[in-house]
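#lab-general

N.A. 3:47 PM
ok so I finally got the sequence cleaned up, no stray characters, all 228 residues accounted for. can someone with queue access submit it? mine expired

B.Y. 3:52 PM
send it over

N.A. 3:53 PM
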Amino acid sequence: MHIDGLSVRFGAFTAVDSVTLEVPPGRVVGLVGESGSGKSSLAKAVCGLVPHTGRVTGASRVQMVFQDPYASLDPRMRVAESVAEALLRMPRQARPAEVERLLGLVSLPAEVAARYPRELSGGQRQRVAIARALGAEPDLLVADEITSALDVSVQGAVLNLVRSLRDRLGLPILFISHNLAVVRYVCDEVAVMHRGKLIEHGPTESVVGSPAQDYTRALLEAVPRLRR
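B.Y. 4:20 PM
back already:
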């Protein structure tokens, strides 16, 4: 997926200012910045959720996984029904087996299909949301702060799942976070946004190990585990 000169404006306010960025196949690119930096507006533009100028090419099917899995799943629908919503292209009789396959892909047992979201843990709900996104066979997966609403004890398991999907499926993933410790663990590259602009981009260890911008260094200092 390639973003070329993308801008998002809300009236006179420029939320994203001429950003160019590539998310290659089989790579996880982290998009980081503080609240208001423009990263979520960029993600929504890539998904076609907000008007923008510039071009997004190489990704005709984009799926987004949101921060709060409970809010993104219909509480009145069982897991099987929620995941099957992405499978309308398939014959009806083939959908139960595909739902089971997708749940297995995100390391959930088949019996989860019969449950409601309220009967699952936060980590399980997020896995269901990822399974549903994968059911649409996306060219790009956008993960928007997908661990920030989860308990610390389950965040690592979800991050490991993201890495596994990258390796097993070769799926390009745009991973949005404000936490550089999380990004360092899961991402191959890091792009740093500040006031709507992309100010730094490169391999994760280069950006985290030797940041070129004061703003990036400030983000690093905000994460105690990354202090040098």
